[in-house]
């Protein structure tokens, strides 16, 4: 972890223990945010993606992706870490593509952080918007075709592009913008605090 990431600037040199603590703390943060939920079908509206953006923008690509992989592993082991206390079955349900896409989302946000693109509110918000948009690729590919190719059945399998847009994408776009701005404000404030501490 380099000082181009907020976590690197705050905790300093790499150590396996520090990274393990960050991963554990990150998964707990995301799991708690996932429980703040507004009922919505098929994907509940939660603070989960806001937490993922903050983790990716703070940890960087590698550690951000590892944190989300650990989060999925916790769910696969039966821990109620997903939205509404869900666990392993959600990984093969209609939202499975979004869950697996969380790793990519954190990696994309983290990659920008690794390259020093997350110091200002506007640039960080734009990065967060791109990462949020990337999440929809596996999110809609899963119910549209990938689940069927994986041999998973259900009424939601083979959902049309129009239905996916109107029910799975469009209702969440405004929320994505708001969450991206909030994540940018949090991370930028974190950078200012870290710089003030060093100064």
Kindly summarize this structure in a few lines.
The chain has about 200 residues and is mostly helical.
How would you portray this structure in words?
The chain is an all-alpha fold and 199 residues long. It has eight helices and two strands; from the N terminus they run H-H-E-E-H-H-H-H-H-H. The chain has a two-stranded antiparallel ribbon with strand order 1-2. Helix 6 (121-149) packs across helix 8 (173-198). The longest helix is centred in the last third of the chain and has 29 residues, at 121-149.
Which properties best describe this structure?
single chain; 199 residues; mainly alpha; 2% strand
| Termini Cα gap | 21 Å
List low-pLDDT spans: none
Helix content estimate? 55-70%
Question: H/E order of the elements?
Answer: HHEEHHHHHH
Approximate strand percentage: under 5%
* Total E-strand runs: 2
Write the layout of secondary structure elements.
Layout lengths: L5 H6 L4 H19 L2 E2 L6 E2 L1 H12 L1 H16 L19 H19 L6 H29 L11 H9 L3 H26 L1
Antiparallel strand pairs: 1-2
């Amino acid at each position: 972890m380099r000082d181009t990431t907020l976590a690197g600037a705050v905790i300093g040199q790499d150590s396996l223990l520090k990274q393990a603590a960050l991963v554990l703390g990150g998964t707990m943060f995301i799991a708690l945010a996932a429980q703040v939920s507004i009922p919505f079908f098929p994907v509940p509206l939660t603070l989960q993606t806001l937490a993922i953006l903050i983790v990716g923008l703070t940890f960087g690509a590698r550690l951000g992706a590892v944190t989300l992989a650990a989060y999925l592993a916790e769910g696969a082991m039966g821990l109620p870490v997903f939205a509404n206390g869900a666990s392993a079955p959600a990984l093969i349900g209609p939202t499975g593509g979004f869950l697996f896409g969380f790793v990519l989302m954190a990696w994309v946000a983290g990659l920008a952080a690794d390259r020093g693109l997350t110091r200002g509110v506007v640039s960080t918000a734009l990065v967060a918007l791109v990462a949020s948009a990337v999440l929809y690729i596996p999110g809609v590919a899963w119910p549209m075709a990938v689940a069927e190719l994986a041999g998973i059945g259900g009424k939601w399998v083979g959902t049309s592009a129009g239905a996916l847009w109107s029910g799975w994408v469009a209702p969440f776009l405004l929320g994505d913008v708001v969450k991206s701005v909030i994540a940018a404000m949090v991370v930028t404030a974190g950078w200012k605090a870290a710089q003030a501490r060093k100064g």
